[in-house]
Automatic annotation (TrEMBL):
Gene3D superfamilies: Bira Bifunctional Protein, Domain 2. InterPro entries: aa-tRNA-synth_II/BPL/LPL (IPR045864), BMT5-like (IPR019446). It holds the Pfam family BMT5-like. One of its GO terms (biological process) is rRNA base methylation. The gene is Fdxacb1. One of its GO terms (cellular component) is cytoplasm. Residues 4-170 form the 25S rRNA (uridine-N(3))-methyltransferase BMT5-like domain. This is FDXA1 protein. It comes from Oceanodroma tethys.
Amino acid sequence: RRVLLLGEGNFTFAASLCGAAGTHVVATCYESEEEVSGRGRAAESIRRLRERGAEVMFSVDCTKLKDYFLPEKREFDCIYFNFPHCGRKTGVVKNRELLAHFFHSSAEVLTEEGEVHVALCNGQGGTPADQPRREWHNSWQIVAVAAGAGFILSNVHPFKAETIHGYKCTGYRNQDKSFCVEGALNHIFTRSTPLPYFKPMICEIELESRKVSFQVPQVLVDKINRGFLELNSNHPVQTVKEKLTAELSQAFPLQNIDYCLSLLHQGHLNGVCHSNIFWIILSPEEAPSSEEMSNGLANAVLFSHVDFCRDTDKNGWVNVQEGCHISKQYYLRPSLLPYAQAIIQRGTFLPGTLHVLSGPVFRKCLITPYSMPVFHEMVFVCAVNRDTENSCIQVLVNNIKTSIHSLHRTVSGFKLNINLQEARSFETTELNDFSAFESQVSKIQYFICMEVDTSGSCEKGSCVGIIRTAHYELGSSELVVVFASLNLDLLAMLICGISDWRMLWTSDTRFLHQFPRGELRLFKSFSLYPPS
């Protein structure tokens, strides 16, 4: 590890780090060697550093770091800047400017996964970690200043000067006055992921040995084909699915039917506003028939497509407008329930067996931390005799509740409540992710509500599933089919303490690194106190 220390006053902090196994220290100071050498302990610390192989540099400006190092010597794993200050009684604005230039300069000499440590006196940073906290305009606004250079605050902890062997804070330049380090905080910054730019994308899917294509809606370009539910995935959504399936397989014979589930539906919708659907249109020569659509789409292939027009391109792909003929309209699936119903109607359904479907579903919505335009739905389907309908619902719900409780206990000690609420007790606006599809034949009976607190009420965003029922005639028997639909994304968020669904879909590797294969853990945010 190459460690760069800036603004050393007497080099006592650098001397305390020097000598650690596998660490090469480069200690720098803003003043000249003559100015520093007369300071107490400075000469001794410089001698110790040089004896241990460290580099000592003088007259180094922290805002122009790349000027002092050859290109091959610029990559540091960690940069320390303790108690930066412009000198004398400069105000907060000047010190903010110093930090801004410092962070931009650090970005040019830091490794991709490196850290920047900045120690500030209590109150200067302007974050909730400061106690007491200054008013925003009177602080150094360190999180916002760092963000301007592409850094996020990933950790903050007390700067305990008394635990650093031999360390003595020098304080203001040219003054025999130390900073007050009581309550000081060390702020640890890492690089944020760059704001992505997504090229327009065409999704090509194979149907009956024929390829059809459609333009992916812009908001979903980075959501299609992410593979969260693949067998080798360590994403928490896949872990929740696997553990739920394993628990329920102990109570029911279980059959997975995830294969060949099409991304597209065609035809009329019931009980859903058309403006909430992601409409897709295929060119006339490519559009499959309704019979072909019912057989399912498979083998999704993605490729970037940049040569297209917004309204109509050379292949006939256009943006769907209100009033287009419905037979030529397709839409991204808002639910997996139609597949379950189609399986029953085709007679490929085994009564008494719990059939399981899962995959991403899509619908337009008002974006909130718990309301998302795409999420992974898991549907359980079981057919029973009419006189055992209620007992089947109870057994299914009890097993789902037991499974969720079991998952939650492995993650945190917070209190967990799971309630079954009748549909008539819910307002339409509370249906959340499950209002996107209303079946012609099935009826919502109950909502599965989950809360990870002690309030005792079903708060907005905590509805994680629904129970539906439908009556079918299979042969000479009239059966009741029970459908249980769960939002796996919302379940994973509530179990792992993730406060925003967008974190589930991030491409930042620091997210998945927190979840080893098959394990659920309490999520620890790597971006603290983001400015809004």
